[in-house]
Amino acid sequence: MEKTKRKYREGDDSKNPLEWTVFAVSLLLIVSILGYLGHQAYTYVPTSPDIQVKYRPDPSVQAPYRYHVSIINLGNQTAEEVLVELALKRGSDELETAELQIPFAPKESEREGWVTFKTNPATADTVAARVMSYKKP
Q1: CA-CA-CA-CA torsion sign (22, 24, 30, 33)
Q2: pLDDT digit of tens for each residue in the chain (137 aa)?
Q3: What pTM did the predictor assign?
Q4: How far is CA 102 from CA 18, 57, 113, 115, 129, in A?
Q5: Are 82 and 52 in contact (CB under 8 A)?
Q6: Is 50 helix (H, G, I), strand (E, B) or coil?
Q7: CA 105, 129, 75, 106: dihedral to nearest 10 degrees?
């Protein structure tokens, strides 16, 4: 009996293969995450917000002249208080404008909103969108 007790006590410090496998996988994950974050920090290039606007008609029963507006920030910095204007134009005349303000557009993100016109967009030649203003936080 004493022999088995001694072996058990001596072998108590050793780890079984499952414990070594879990340790190796955990170590690999931690090193991978640290390597990825280090690479991102090393290759980061700060660029100003690059805001693009996409729009399409999105009529509903209550708002027949409604437009869906997507604001896409392709830059590496956040933009605050983004103000977008959509204008109905016929020739060089501006028939009507509608504005949409997005309070917060994080880097590499997309935000959505809707604007409604009083005038039927079919009476206009074109609908034009532009970013009026934004600020960096």
Answers
A1: negative
A2: 555 554 545 556 677 889 999 999 999 999 999 999 999 999 888 788 999 999 999 999 999 999 999 999 998 899 999 999 999 999 889 999 999 999 999 988 999 999 999 999 999 999 999 999 999 88
A3: 0.69
A4: 52, 19, 8, 12, 15
A5: no
A6: coil
A7: 10
